[in-house]
Amino acid sequence: MTDVLTPDAPAATPTVTGDAAATGDTAANAATGTARVEVRTGGAWAAVCAVEHLVPGRGVAALLPDGGQIALFLDRTGTVHAIGNRDPFTGAYVLSRGLLGSVDGAPFVASPLLKQRFDLASGRCLDDETVTVPAYATRVR
Fold first, then answer.
1. How deeply is 12 buried, as exposed, middle or buried, from its count of CB atoms within 10 A (0-12, 13-18, 19+)?
2. Is there a contact between 85 and 97 (Cβ–Cβ < 8 Å)?
């Protein structure tokens, strides 16, 4: 299930998170307006969606090649983040519907169900340090 939102405002210039650097056809993609978000999973990069489908401050859910779900976010600074979409407290695939915020400059998403907050860089739950969700490196090409 891929939930694609149409932007109602221009997105900020996206940046890379995780251990990745944007390389390759970036100039060619920019010239054709087809810059895409990729997520590192299973040792390889997987294209997820066109960056223009992301709206700052909102999340979308996407399927990975292995059938897993991620929650993809473009924060208001233009940084793309990806974490697992499954809320470990309820088992529901809803983190992409959560509210974005930040603590000491570090972005998080609050689950729409029980409101636990998950760090978007590490996947660590800020309200229960024994719980995490997968966090994925992202890049825009």
1. middle
2. no
| Backbone φ and ψ of 10, nearest 5° | -65, 140
Q: Where are the alpha helices (DSSP H) in 12-98?
A: 26-32
| 3-state SS assignment for residue 80 | strand
Helical ranges in 1-141 per DSSP H: 26-32
Distance CA 50, CA 131 (A): 31
Distances in whole angstroms, Cα of residue 81 to Cα of each of 28, 123, 127 = 23, 10, 20
Per-residue model confidence (pLDDT) at position 90: 98
What token pair was written down for 33? 């307006």
> In the structure, what pLDDT confidence band is assigned to residue 76 with cuts at 50, 70 and 90?
confident
Contacts of 75 (CB under 8 A, 6+ apart): 56, 57, 81, 100, 107, 120
Question: 56: Cβ–Cβ under 8 A, 6 or more apart, which residues?
Answer: 9, 11, 12, 74, 75, 76, 78
**In this predicted model, what pLDDT tens digit does every residue of 111-138 receive, in sequence order?**
999 999 999 999 999 999 999 999 999 9
Q: How far apart are CA 135 and CA 137, in angstroms?
A: 7
